[in-house]
Amino acid sequence: MPYKFLISGGGTGGHIFPAIAIADQLKAMHPDAEFLFVGANGKMEMEKVPKAGYEIVGLNITGIQRKLSLANLMFPFRLIASLMKARGILKKFQPDVVIGVGGFASGPVLRMATWMKLPALIQEQNSFAGITNRWVAKDVDRACVAYDNMERFFPKQAIVKTGNPVRKAVVTIEGKRTAALEAFGFSSDKPVLLVVGGSLGARSINLAIKKDLDALLKADLQVLWQTGNSFKDDAPIVQQQYEGQPVVIKEFIFDMDNAYAAADMVVSRAGAIAVSELCIVGKPTILVPFPFAAEDHQTKNAEALVKTNAARMVADKEVQAQLLQEVLALNEDAQLRTTLSQNIKQHALPKAAEDIATEVIKLIRR
Prior knowledge:
By secondary structure, the chain is of the alpha/beta class. It folds into 2 domains: 4-165 and 350-365, Glycogen Phosphorylase B (Rossmann fold, 3-Layer(aba) Sandwich), CATH 3.40.50; 169-345, Glycogen Phosphorylase B (Rossmann fold, 3-Layer(aba) Sandwich), CATH 3.40.50.2000. The protein has helices at 13-29, 45-51, 70-93, 106-115, 131-136, 168-171, 177-184, 203-218, 235-241, 256-262, 272-281, 297-306, 319-332, 334-345, 352-365, and strands at 4-8, 34-40, 56-59, 97-100, 120-124, 142-145, 159-161, 192-196, 222-226, 247-250, 265-268, 285-287, 312-313. A 7-stranded parallel beta sheet has the order 3-2-1-4-5-6-7, with helices on both faces. Helix 12 (297-306) links the parallel strand 12 and strand 13 (312-313). Helix 3 (70-93) crosses helix 4 and helix 8 (203-218) packs across helix 13 (319-332).
């Protein structure tokens, strides 16, 4: 009989894309396998997962708001309804194993799976486990993590350090630098600064780069700047102002492999997947964590690198005052760039999808 894999979670790209990467790897290993995703209605997984070629069903579940609201009063009722629907999905699909990647939908599905004694595995992307994974942590069979010292969240015997699955096409940059520079219209005799704040962008970083752009160009830097949609109205105006200068501004960079290949230094948010990609490509990096991420996990992700001298960090509230200084200091210190590059590579786990898939199959065969 073909294996049946049920994968739950989502809410953000940081949950969805690892889930799809795990599914793709399992499909490559077992082409006849059946897959079913469970997401949260109204969230981006309901669009992204079908585009990746997988079936998905939705639960009417939301997170708990940080302030008193009607949604919070409704949460217990939605949770109970989602648990009941998850039970029906599990009984109907009869998966061999249930995989949770975090996010709203993952909680009810994983909780019901453990109550039903189904093999269950969670993948935790961050150095500080999310509330959903913490809720089921003690009852799952395996916790695949990306950072050390995760015993404070999961039973030690359940932990396997695998890293985060990333898109292979994005981190395959060997031999691409010359073509990448040409693609963006950059020269090979000046360093390139890549600025990226995630798919939605980072307004604080965007405002700082806009303010400091003249100083960056004066320092002979070329700037490749992904603004995200939060800055999309300003981006064309700024691009026009710097026409003819080595500044490329894009709302979204689709060929991130070329962006990484061209870059000599990177300014980035500290989301789990962005950090995992940066570790693999090994670029000297300044991280600006998003301070309002759940449990401030981006700051904790960044600190895990900073404490091993694998990256620099600027607090979001200090970005206007300090980012330019950090970029210029990094640009002027070749030894620091080499040290950061070497050290960040030590955190790379490029076979994460394969290792997680192997753990999934082990649970079935056990």
